Amino acid sequence: MQKYLNEVSFQLDRHITLITPTAPIQPATHGGRAKCLQRLVRLKLPVPRTVALSFDTVKAIALGRIPDTKVLLSVFDADALVCVRPSSEDPDWGGPTTMLNIGMNDAACARLSETLGAGAARALYRRWVQTYAVHVARLDPDAFEEIDEDAPDALEQSLRAYEDEAEEPFPQDPATQLSEVLRSMARSWESVSARLLREAKGAPVDAGLGLAVQEMALGLGRGESGSGVLQLVDPETGLPQVTGRYLSQSQGRDALEAGKKALFLTTDPRGPSLQERAPEAFAELLEHAALMRQRLRAEMQVEFTIENGRLFILDGIVVPASNAAAIRIAVRLSEDAIITPQEAVMRVKPRMLSALLHPQVDPGATRDVIGAGIAASPGAATGRIVFSATDAQASAAREEPCILVRRETAPEDVRGMHAAVAVLTERGGMTSHAAVIGRGMGRPCVVGASKMRFQPQRKQIVAADGRVFKEGDIITVDGTAGEVLAGAPKMQAARLDDAFRTLLKWADAERDLRIRVNADTVEDAQTARDFAAGGIGLCRTEHMFFEPGRLTVMQEMIFAATPEDRRAALAQLLPIQRADFKELFAIMAGKPVCIRLFDPPLHEFLPTDRAGLRDLAEALNLPVSDVTRRVEAMGEYNPMLGLRGVRLGITVPEIYAMQARAIFEATLEASREGDDPVVPEIMIPLVSARREVEIVRARIEQEASAVRTERGRDFTYRLGVMVETPRACLIAGDIAPHVDFLSFGTNDLTQMTYGLSRDDAGRFMNDYVQQGVFEEDPFHRLDQNGVGELLRIGLERARAANPDVIISICGEHGGNPESIHFCRTLGMDYASCSPFRVPVARLAAAQAAIQDKIERS
Amino acid sequence: MQKYLNEVSFQLDRHITLITPTAPIQPATHGGRAKCLQRLVRLKLPVPRTVALSFDTVKAIALGRIPDTKVLLSVFDADALVCVRPSSEDPDWGGPTTMLNIGMNDAACARLSETLGAGAARALYRRWVQTYAVHVARLDPDAFEEIDEDAPDALEQSLRAYEDEAEEPFPQDPATQLSEVLRSMARSWESVSARLLREAKGAPVDAGLGLAVQEMALGLGRGESGSGVLQLVDPETGLPQVTGRYLSQSQGRDALEAGKKALFLTTDPRGPSLQERAPEAFAELLEHAALMRQRLRAEMQVEFTIENGRLFILDGIVVPASNAAAIRIAVRLSEDAIITPQEAVMRVKPRMLSALLHPQVDPGATRDVIGAGIAASPGAATGRIVFSATDAQASAAREEPCILVRRETAPEDVRGMHAAVAVLTERGGMTSHAAVIGRGMGRPCVVGASKMRFQPQRKQIVAADGRVFKEGDIITVDGTAGEVLAGAPKMQAARLDDAFRTLLKWADAERDLRIRVNADTVEDAQTARDFAAGGIGLCRTEHMFFEPGRLTVMQEMIFAATPEDRRAALAQLLPIQRADFKELFAIMAGKPVCIRLFDPPLHEFLPTDRAGLRDLAEALNLPVSDVTRRVEAMGEYNPMLGLRGVRLGITVPEIYAMQARAIFEATLEASREGDDPVVPEIMIPLVSARREVEIVRARIEQEASAVRTERGRDFTYRLGVMVETPRACLIAGDIAPHVDFLSFGTNDLTQMTYGLSRDDAGRFMNDYVQQGVFEEDPFHRLDQNGVGELLRIGLERARAANPDVIISICGEHGGNPESIHFCRTLGMDYASCSPFRVPVARLAAAQAAIQDKIERS
C-alpha cells in the first residue's frame, strides 16, 4: 500500500521536503523529529513516507501563507490518510498534539469499510470529525458531547452538529483538511501559553516549530493491527529489559492510556502478548530497536504501528528515564562501545546526581502539601516537629527522627540541625544560614516558607488552609520540591550505585579543575572524603566555639577587660581547637586543609533574651543591668558590614593568635604520626585593605616562630585571603604579592556587589525573579555580569602581580554547574563547595573541560 | 663691620654656599629660609652675610661628617659672632631652635666689653655658655639653675659648672663651637619626636633640613639697638595695619616674649615706639617690608635687628594669619596686582572656608573639655542639654538654645536636630546619620563620643572624669575640634565678608566642574541658594514622611492589606508632597532639582518601643499583639542591604507612583507661575540591575502620561539612577542607554565596596586609621583605589554606551576637596554636596581646574 521513501524524490521547495536519506534536514531548521525520522530512513527502517516542513514554513503558515497542500499530498499514495506531527528543535519544548487520520471523508469511509468493516470505518470517521471540529475548526465541544458514540447514526449526528456550528458542511477535500490542520498547529505554537511553557523549559524566544506530514499506518485492520511503544531498558532503573505498551486496533499513543486492555510485549504468563500474536513483527521490532540504539547512539523509545501484521516505525525519542536510569544508560552505552566515556559524561545533567545523593519522596506517592518555600537543600525526610535545637538533640538521643522548625537558624542551632533529619524555616533564601548549613550537612531543607504561619511560642505551625501542626506531629520536608507535606509519604532511598561511581571516575579523568569541599566538622570531612574531594577549601572555625562549655569561655573572653584576661580565656580554648584541627588533618590524610580564621561578629555569641542575659550575668558574676548594657552596646545595625572577620583580627588580636597557635601545634602533632608533613592553609576573612594582610601575616608568622622554637621542630604553612569584598577584588594586585592563595567567597561578595543581604533578600527575591528583574537568584547562580566581572578583575590583577598565587572560589556557587563552568573559564585553580555538591561539581567541571576541548577542536 | 654679601663669592662645595644672588639655592635642596634669604639678597636688603648648608650636608653632619668649620667661618668678619637657623622645606614642619652668639668666648667677651660695656658682654657670654651646655653639649640643666645671674661672678660660676659637668673646659675655639652646634641641630632633626611632629603636619618621611649660618647683628650696643618682627597687616583680620613687636637691647625673637617691656612700632600715645626712637631705621624698615610684599608676592613677617641705629633684615616668613585674614590677604594682594586672581584662589585652603561658615570657640577662650569624639560637622554652639527631639523642639519654641544629646540619631530626630543648636551622639562616624544631617544643616556636631557615658534614661551624661551633666545643664559642642566643653566659653562669630565673596567669584570664573547641593528641605534650599549652588543634586524625600500627621498615614500605608488600600493612604500624602516639591522648585527658580525617590526601608517608619506599638495599634484599630508581630516580621538583619530603594519601588509600586505624580503636578503648577518651565530630575536609588530601571521608568512614564492627559498640558522631565551598588558601577554600560543621568552615591558605594557599615564603623575606625590599616576614614576622603576604581569603571562604561549621559557624584565626598579633584579628573559633570560645603566645593573645583591648566602649560 505505501510507497517506500527511496522510490521517490520530492521537494516542493527547500523548506518542504520529502524525508530521504539525502534531503537537507537539520534539527535547527526542521526540528528533532524530522531529523530522527531521516536517520531511521537512512537505516532503511519501515518508516511511512514523510514530508518535513521547516520552521520558516510553519512561521509563514501561522501568518496565513499556506503551501499548496494538493501538491504536497500528491507525494503520498492517492487513497492514503495522513497525520501531522510536531517537530520542535528539542522535544522537551512541547508543541501541538499530533493530528491523525487527515483525509478521512465520505469517500475514504466507504473505501475503508471494505477493508476494516463499516463499524470501524464509521467510528474512525466520527472521531476525526469531532477532533477536527474541536481542535482545528475550534468549534464548541459541547455541541458534540451529547452524541452517543454507540448510536447507529453517531457519524451523521456528528456531521450535522459540525454543519450547524460551523455554518458550512464538514470539508470533504483532503487538501482543505490538511491546510486547516497545518494552520491550526502553526498558530497554536505561537500562542502565549505555549510560548511561556517552552520558555520555562529553556527554549529561546524565537524557537521554531517544524511539522512532519506522514502517510498513516492505520493500526486498524482484519489481521493483527495496533500501535504501541517499545524500549530496551527499564526507564526507572536503566537496566536492560524490554518494556513498553501495545494495544490492538489502536492508533497513535492510545496504548499508553489503555490500562489493562494493553497487551504485554514479550511472552508473559499473565496474559496475551505481542510476541505471541505477531512473532515476526515483534522480532523485526526488536531488531530495529537494537539497530536504533546502536546507530542513534541512545536508548530509544520506538513508536510503532502494525497494520495487518506488517510493522511500521513511526518515530523514536530518547527514553524518558529517571535520574538513576539516565546515568546507568549513559554508562552502559559507553561500556557497549556505542558512545565514548566522554560522551557518557556529557549526557548526564549535574543536577541529576544531586537528586540521587538523598532519599526522595516517591514520585508515585500522594502528596498532602501544607506549605511551600525555597528548595534550599535537596532530598526529603519525615519526622516529628520540634521547635528548638535542644529538643532536636533530645529527640535524636531517643532515636526519634525530628524536623527542626525555626523562624530562622543561627550558629547556635547547628548541633540541632545535625540532630534533625530535616530543617524548615519561615525566613531566609538560598544562602541563608539554614540553607547553607543544610546543604553542607546534606539535610533536606525548605526555607522562606512564609505562607505558613510559624508560632514557635505556641509550639505550632499553621498551614495556609488553617490546619494546625503541633510539636510532635509528623511532617515531611521535601527539599527537592521546596514543599512541606503532612504525614509520611512513601519514600525512595538514595541510590549511589556502581554506574554513578563509574561515571564520576570517567569525569575525573577529563576534569582539569580541582574540586575541594567546604567542610566545618569531622562529619563533613568524612562525607567529603567519601565523595573524593581534593581537600578542604573552606573550614569555617566559628561553629567550634558554640559547643557547650566553649561558649561560656567565649563570653568570658568577650567581656574581658584587658588583653591579658582575653588571652587567659582563649588559652582554655586552645587545646580544644587544637584537637579539632588535629582530627581534621588526620581525616584528610595529607590532602590540603584550608582553615578560615574566626569570622562572625562577637555579639553572635551573646544571648539576647532575658533568661540568657541572667545566666550570663551569673556566670560572669556581674549585675544583669551591666551585662544587658554591654550586650546592647555591642549590637550592630548591619552585622554583615560590621566588626567581624579580619577587623576583629586587627582589633582583638588575641583570637587569631590563639587560632594560629592551635593550627601550628596541631600541624606538628598530626605530622608526628607518620606520613607526609601536614601543610595547613590559613585564610583571612573579609579583607578590604592590603595593610590588614600585612599586619595579620606578621602576627601569624610571629606565632609560628614561637611554636617552632618551643617545639624545636619546623613546619611550613600557606597564608591566603578570602576575597569577599568588592574592594578586595579591585585591589587584588596589591594583595597578591603578600599571599600564597586567594579564594573568592562569592556569598558575601554577591551580597556586597548587589547591596543585598542574603538573610533579607528572601522577602522579595521571588517577586524579583518572577518579574524578571533578576534572571535568577544571584545567590543560587553566580551573577556573571556583576560579581563575575569582579572575579575577572580580581583574578587578572592578582595573577599579573603574582603569577604563582593559587586562585579559587569557595562560596556556595562552587557547587553550581554553570558557575563552575564560568570559574574554569576564568582560569581558577579549584572550586570548593558543600560536601553533597562535590559529585555535582566533579561532573560539571568535567563537562566544562570536555566542552572546551570540543570547541577548540 | 659686616661685609656685604655681593662683595664676596664663596662656595665650600655645591652643598655649602654663600648666599649670593646667583648661588644655586632651592627650597627643595636648602630649605625655605635659605631661599627666602637669597630673595632678600637679590632685593639688596641689608641681610647679614649667610652661608647655606644643604639637606645632604646636614644629613652627613648627623652621621658625623662635619664640614671644615674653620674654612666656613673664614667667610665672615674675623671677629664676628654667628648664628645658625633651621631651613626646612616648609616652615610649618618645624625644626631645631635657632642658636645665637656662636663664637662667644673669653676673647670676644673682652672685645665686646669695649663696645657694649663689660656687664652686657659678660651677660651675653654667660647666657651662651649655659645655652651651649644645655642644648649643644646636653649637660644637666640643674647644674646651672642655682647660679644667681645677678652675681658678679655668674660668668665664672657658669664656666666652672660647665667644666665640672663636661669634664673639659668650655670650648674657646669658634670653629669647635660651630661644629658642635651643627652636629646638635642635625641630630635633633633626626629624633623620633621631631619626626613624628613634622609627619603629623604632612611632611614626607625623608623631609630634609637645611641650616643657615649667619653673621650676627647683635641687637645690643650703645646706640639704639634691639630686635623685633614687623608685618604690614593685622594677622587676625588681614586688614592693612603695621603690627609687630620690638624690644631694645634684645636678640632673636626675645621681643615676642617681652610682654609690656616691648616698644610700640609706630608712634603711639600709650608709650614709646620704634618710630620715635629710630625714625630713619623704621622708615627704612617699612620701605623694605613693602618691597618684600611686592616682590616676594606675599604678606611677610619681617625679622629685623637694629645695631646702633643700623637696620638688618634677618629673615622673612609668610604672615601666620587666621582663616579670615588669609582670605583677605590673598584678595588684597590680587587687588594690588601683586598676584593674579588665579593665584589668590590657589592660596586659600578650602577647609579655611569651612571654618568661617560657622561660629567658633574663640581661640583665646578657656576650654573645660569634658568629652571628645569625631569632629563631624564644624562650628561650635552653646546650649542646654536635651535628650529627645521633642524636648529640643519645645526648647526652641521657648527660644532657649539647646544641644540635642542622643545615643545616635534616626530620621525621626531630624526635626529635633533642626530645633537644636548642636548635636552630640555616643555612636557613629563621619557618615552616620547625625553627621550627615548635621553637616547638611550646618549644625555643629560631635559623634562617637564613646568615652563619655550616655545615660539618656537617667537624663544625664557623665564625663570621663566622673562629672555629671544633667538635662538643662549648659555645655558647648565644638564640632571643629571634636570636643565637648562644659559651660559657655567665649565664641567668635561666623565671618562671611566681602573678601570671601570676591574670592569665590574669582573661583567660579576658573571652575569647570558644576557644583550642586544636597538639599532635602526648604531651609537647605535657601542656604544653598545663598551659597550660589548650581541646583539641587540630591533631594532626599523620606524626611517628608516623618512630619507629624504624615507618619501615621505612612504607617497605615505600610499595614494596608491591598494595593487599593495602599493607594488610598498614599493619596492623602500626595497634596502634601506636591506642595513640598512646588516650594523647592520655586526657591531654586529654574535651577535643576534632582529628586531621589523614596529610599529607606519601611520599618524605619514603625515604632519599636512598647508605647509606640500601643499607639500604633490604637491608631490602626488592631490588637497590640498583631501590630507587634507584624512590626517584628518586618525587621531586617542588615537594613542597609535589605528591602529599600528601587526594591521597594518594584515590590510596592504605589509609593513611586504617588511621588512621580506629586513631582509632575508640582512641575506644572510651578511652571504656571511664570518663568521657564520646570524640568524636574527624578533619581532611582539603590539600582543593581538594568531591568529595575526599565520597570520603574515605564511606570513613571505612565504616570507622566496620565498627568499630561488630566491637566491637558505638556512637560518634560529627566530620569536617572543613583549609582551606589558596586554592581551598578560594573553594569553602568547596560544602564546608561536607559537614563538621562547617573549620580554616584559614594556613601553607600563605600559601604558596599568595603563591606563596611557607616553606622558600625565608628567602633574600630579610629583603631584602623591609627594603625595605618586605612590611610584615612574612607567615608571622609574618597577611597581612590577601590571606590574610585568603581567610579572610573562606571563612568567609562556609561559614557561609552551613552555619550550624552550626565554623570555626577552626590555622596558626602562631593564636599571633600581631594575627592572633588578626583571626580573632576575622572570627567564628571558636577559634584553635589551638603549646603555648608558648597563654598568649599566651589573653591576646590576651581583649584583643580587651575592646577590642571598649570600642569598642561
UniProtKB/TrEMBL annotation, chains A, B:
Record EC number: 2.7.9.1
Active site: 433, 810
Lineage: Bacteria, Pseudomonadati, Pseudomonadota, Alphaproteobacteria, Rhodobacterales
Residues in PEP-utilising enzyme mobile domain copies: 399-482
Keywords assigned by UniProt, alphabetized: Kinase, Magnesium, Metal-binding, Pyruvate, Transferase
Protein's organism: Roseivivax lentus
Protein known as: Pyruvate, phosphate dikinase
Residues noted as binding substrate in the record, renumbered to the chain: 540, 596, 724, 745-748
Record PROSITE patterns: PEP_ENZYMES_2 (PS00742)
Entries under SUPFAM superfamilies matching the protein: Glutathione synthetase ATP-binding domain-like, Phosphoenolpyruvate/pyruvate domain, Phosphohistidine domain
Gene Ontology MF annotations: ATP binding; kinase activity; metal ion binding; pyruvate, phosphate dikinase activity
Stored NCBIfam families: pyru_phos_dikin
Domain PEP-utilising enzyme C-terminal, residue spans: 499-848
PANTHER family, A to Z: PHOSPHOENOLPYRUVATE DIKINASE-RELATED, PYRUVATE, PHOSPHATE DIKINASE 1, CHLOROPLASTIC
Function of the protein: Catalyzes the reversible phosphorylation of pyruvate and phosphate.
Record-stated family: Belongs to the PEP-utilizing enzyme family.
